[in-house]
Structure formats: C-alpha cells, structure tokens
Amino acid sequence: MLFKNGKLFLPPPRDGSDFKELFKRLAAAGAGRLLGKDGFPAGPWTPELLAEAISQIDSNRVGVDLRTVQLWFQENEKGISTANIRWLARILGCDDPIATSEWQMELSAAQSRLSIKRRGWKRAGSSVAQEIPDTALTATFDDETDSPAVLTRDTDPKGPSRRFSLARKSEAFFSRGSPLNLPASVFAGVTALGFLSYLTGIHSVTYGRADGVVKQVGFLWTANWTFVFMVFLPLFFAFVTELVTFWKDEGRPKLVAQDDKMESDDAWARSVQASSYSYWAVLLICVVFAGLFQWIGVSLIPLLKGGGSYATDWGSLAIVRPEVISVPEAIVFTGLAYLYMCLCFYLFFVGLILLYTVIHDLWKIGKAASNSPEVDYQYGFHEASLRVMRAIFRCTVLGLLIAIVMKLQSAYLTSRGENIVAWLVGDMSSAFYGRNDVTAVISYRRPTHYSSLLIAISTCAVFLYGSIRVGVEPRFRMSLWKMSAIVALLVASYLLIDAFAGFSILLGVGVLFAIYGLFDPGLGRRQAIKLGNNQSVS
Questions:
Q1: pLDDT per residue over 43-79, tens digit each?
Q2: Which of 25, 65, 229, 300 is least surrounded by CB atoms within 10 angstroms?
Q3: Last residue of one domain, picked from the residues 122, 145, 162
Q4: Of 107, 140, 162, at which residue does a domain stop?
Q5: 242 CB contacts (<8 Å, ≥6 apart)?
Q6: Which of 486, 494, 484, 483 is closest to 457 using CA atoms?
Q7: Same domain, 153 and 201
C-alpha cells in the first residue's frame, strides 16, 4: 500500500480484469481518497463522494453526473466513456502525472476488455444467464429499452424527476416530439381566434374617429396578430426547435466525445435546470403582468366603464360600435386572446433562454477542450459553432420583426391612415412628394411600444452574447459582420418607426435584408467556407 500527495495510491494491477471487476476492487479500497486525520485510509468510495471528487477537478469544467457514477457501481454491462476515463485516472493517480498516465492506460484496456465481453454476451443470447449474475442479467436486458439510470430516476422517490421543474417542462416543448408540434399549435391558436372574430363580426370593421378619420380596426387587419402569430412566431419556434434538437442529439454528444448519450443528456438537463429562476421570472412577467394586468387595464376596465385613454381597436370596439359586438362578448374574446398571447410570448422567451443555454454550453465545452490537438475535434467544434450562430441570427431577425410589427400596429392606431397598408404607402409617398398628412394628430397611451421594446432588447442581448462567445473564429468574422449589420439596420428601423416622414423606406430596406438573411443565414459565405475547407485538406 502506497501514498501519494496524502492520498491512498494503488498501482495498476495489470491482471486482465475488465472495467467492472477492476472498479469494484478500487472503490472498495478507496483508492485515490485522502487519508484520514489519523493517517489511515478514509474508507471505500461511494457514488456521491466519487462524483463530487471528479467534479472538483480544476480542468474538468463539464463535471460528471451522479447517475453516471452510480452506473459504475452497479452490476450491469455499462462501462465508462473515454472522457471520464481521464478524470477517473486523475483520481486513482492521486494527481501524479506519471501515475495518472499509467491508470489511464489501465482503465482504457479494462474498458476494452469489458466491451469484448459485452459483445460476447450479446452473441451468446440466452446463454448469458449462465455467465452473469441475475442482477446483471436484468440490468443488461433492461438497458435495451430503458437504461438503469433512467429506471433509477423513475423509481427513486427522492430523485429529481419526482420534483416539478418548470425549466425541464418548458424545454420539452422544443426538444420532444415532432418539430412541427409547437409551430402548428401556435398557428392553430391564432386561426381559431380568427374564426371567432369572424363569428362575432369584428374580423373586418371600421369606425369613425372624432377627428373624422375612418379607421380599419378589424382583428384580421391587425399586423401584430396576423403576421406575428401566423408567420414570425411559428418560424421562430421552428428554428429554436431545430437548434435545440441538433445540439442535444448530435452536436453536444460529438463534442464531448461521450459514448454514453444518456450522460450527455444529463449534462444538458443540468444546464437547462441552472436557469430555473429565469423560467419562473419569465412566466410571472408574461402571465401576470403582460397577460392578466394588461388585459384588465387595456380591455376589461375600458369595456366596463365605457372609455379609456387607449386607442380604439378590435378589443374595445364594443364601446364605439355596440351594434357589432356586445360588451360581454368582447370581454370573453379579449380574455381568450390575451391568454393565448401571454402563453405564446412565454414560449418565445423560453426559446431565447434555450438559445442562451446552447451558446453557454457550447462555449463551456469549447473552453474545456481548447487545448485539444485533434483536427477532427476542432473541425467539429467549428461546424457546430457555425450552425449555432446561424440559428441565433435567424431567431434574432424574427424577434426584431416581431417587435417591429408590434410597434407598427401601435403607431398606426394613432395615425391618420385608414388602414395599415395605406398608412405605410402614404408615408413612403410623402418622402418623395413632400406631403405629411399621415402623422398622428391624437395622442393615446401606447403600451405595445414598451412590450415591443422589451422583445427587441431581449433578442439583441442573446445575439450579442452569441457573437461574443461563439462568433470569434477568424473564418466566421466576415459573416458575423454582415449579420451584425442586418441586426443593426433592423434595430434602427424599429427605433425610427413614425419618427419622420418616409421612415417606411428605411423599414422596407431592413425587412428585405432580413428576409434574405432568413433564407441564407450564411449571407453568401457558404461557398467560400467550402473552398476554404477544401484548401485546408489538400
């Protein structure tokens, strides 16, 4: 028995044991544990102690999941991933470089022997019952459908799966089932509201304002409901779902080089759970303030009292056109619409949180393996970074388009335009003919201006974070500059809405560039990257 750096050291036995046999002896002996105060070994390893010791290694920024370590202790056919061999060797080598290297070779050989045995067990089929204990046999065949770690989580009453997690439940909307589910649900919801508006007669209706302007305020004419919930939000959800699914199922497992995908999924789940407070804060803001309080202040109270300081729209039409829709019908319809709206925007901010989580997760993995000399790994990291940043750019464009449409609709209600199309066309012509007869002449409160600003700021913050953490590669900088220019143009277009005559020209240019960016997020760099890759390997 030897001691290194105040820890119990056992030299590699090199007796031909597989990983399960070797690990069982090492864990029982407490190899790599600090000595007790009396100078004697501190005792055997437990899954909790070993997981904590591995996670405390300075260079191990990803850590290891407790359920993964529990698998090493159990009688099953599960081995150890290549990434975790390195960390376990650090423990057994007592932080001695030479001893760690010897243990790394011994653990790799033991894992190879376990893999050979595992293939033999699968070929033997039913005869495996004669070679493996009953507990191992059960775990072996259960692993074909549900891994032992999954069974442990489901049967452990104290496990994390028994506790409700808003973060995990929200993430599941984007990562489980068909990628079409969430976009289709959002589209179906606004379609149902459109049918209800048609049945109640407020789908297309005008009213005469006090200054003589006749304005179109029908539900189907409101750009912040038709374009946002029928086009922009479904596309946003589709892009977020595609990115999260790619990162969780393909990108992350490849970069961390984990043979056990369940371990990668657990690490991703920990990253999602780390933002748990953010999900609750967003739920509170969206449902209570943007949903309930805004509905009470903007729709319910004006409908009950018969007036207010907000511009008339489809929600308050019962005040000026009671023959079209009654107040009780308007209360019910606006209540359903605001409930649908606040839930959709909660999912929108969930998408932004998930985009941030993917960026941060990618950055952590890249930082932990920044010294890796493997060309294949570096190429895979660059490709993953490129794909992540392009998805972030698309989602940023859609988020800014949502903010723009919301502010446009709010500005239109206070303008002299008869409908939003005529208002924009009139503003564009005023820049050429010097006329300015479409500006606002009546002042109203504009709560949508504030909510659209929150959306614009939040979306740009995620893009900025991605640019700092991910978009720093030399071959990606040109595309990043183009992306940033389009984002800046959209932000300027948003801020200058209704600020001067002819603002719609700048807005139209920004929207054209945005649409081009949605179709080609690489902004013409795809061919150049291919040529660069071919030159690098020639």
A1: 888 888 888 888 888 777 667 777 788 888 888 777 8
A2: 25
A3: 162
A4: 162
A5: 179, 391
A6: 494
A7: no
